[in-house]
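Sample 1 of the test manifest.
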Amino acid sequence: MTQENNADAREILVELDHAKKSFGDTEVLKDLSLSVGRGEVLAIIGPSGGGKSTLLRCCTLLETLDAGTLRYGDIEVAHNDADGRAVYADKATLASARRRFGLVFQNFNLFPHYTVMKNLIDAPISVSKMPRAEAEERARRLLARMNLQDKEDMVPCELSGGQQQRVAIARALMQNPDVLFFDEPTSALDPELTKGVLRVIRDLAEEHMTMVIVTHEMKFARDVADHVIFMDGGVIVEEGTAEDVFDRPQHERTRSFLKGSE
Amino acid sequence: MEFGKMMSLLGSGFVLTSQVFVITLIGALPLGIVVALCRMSRFKPLAWLARLYISFLRGTPLMLQLMALMFGPYALFKMQVSADWKFWACYIGFILNYAAYFAEIYRSGIQSIPRGQYEAAEVLGYSRGQTFCKIVLPQVVKRIMPAMGNEVITLVKDTSLAFVLGIMEMFAQAKALAASQVSLMPYVLAALIYWACCLIIEFALGRIEKKMDYYHD
């Protein structure tokens, strides 16, 4: 099913509207809007320093917006007050929003002192009160899907970078999020290890997992994404289907970026 | 005086020495965490207060601090203190002083934990308390073990300062024995006992470090 013919039924999972964010005098996001519907894969590409990571960090509540609205389905995380400044919801609302997404970091950020199993089950058990047996069963299923079934008792330092990143993906999936964010998931990996991680993300896409992926892997973005955003200078320069952006870029800035990254 | 009699007097001193050592650790290890957290607080007055505390307690001799606690209540407020106040003065003095040193060691450890660990915990929904106790502190403990070991070894020998308050710990006993026996032997024995304690502690610390060596980051 293409996006066009189910447009009416498109269920919006994440919606960011007129987002603005500055660090000191530097405007990093300049009035930026996007939405992600269920089952969609959105790839965000663009040069370093263009605001991609900040955008992702604002969506995952690691940074706060200066202005704009952010919603996760029916949960309003932030809205503008009368002066046009973003106001965030209370702690409980933010906590329920956090359960709707997972985030995979560039540097994995696994907990080094926990085994693979404990990395996966600790948050569901101690934060969401998931019964241990259920958490372990779910963790084993996810590890099998990541091809890591024999690694549950190891600690992260015993795994390769690619394996660590797959553990991180499994950890992000433990609480069954609506949407999964990836912040340059393969940038810390060498090409050989990158493959395994990209394959896992491809598999998730085929299972219609909703994902937002900041990436430098152009070929991968083109293969896996329904929708592509090219960002530079804190704005969306160009967006559209993967074919639109990669094959028929309208803006000179996009063309030169794509040319440079070939 | 026979050797056995000498050892039993040193032994009775050793009991007090051990008490000062253990009670100081029980008090100062957790208090150090609290002071370190205050020192890193975003609430500036609290951070400055913690800084002042650390600076003063590290910047004045422990012996002087002990004497201030011992004689301060009477000198300042004309308070009559009980006979066992000297023990309280000793424990409080040691705990406050060592907490200042421990706080800086904890701080170095806490600040060495990468931001990504906090961010991962935040995204997974851990509360700030959970993040500190489950994610940060266990990693901090591993990182600060060598520095902590140093301080703990120093504490073994610092306990001898309790003698200025008239507490008959091992060093005070050795001094009294040396005077009454006109012999340096008690000092030699005391030194050997201090060293033996430190060897045991070194061994224990080594075991703990080895146990935490199951991961690196």
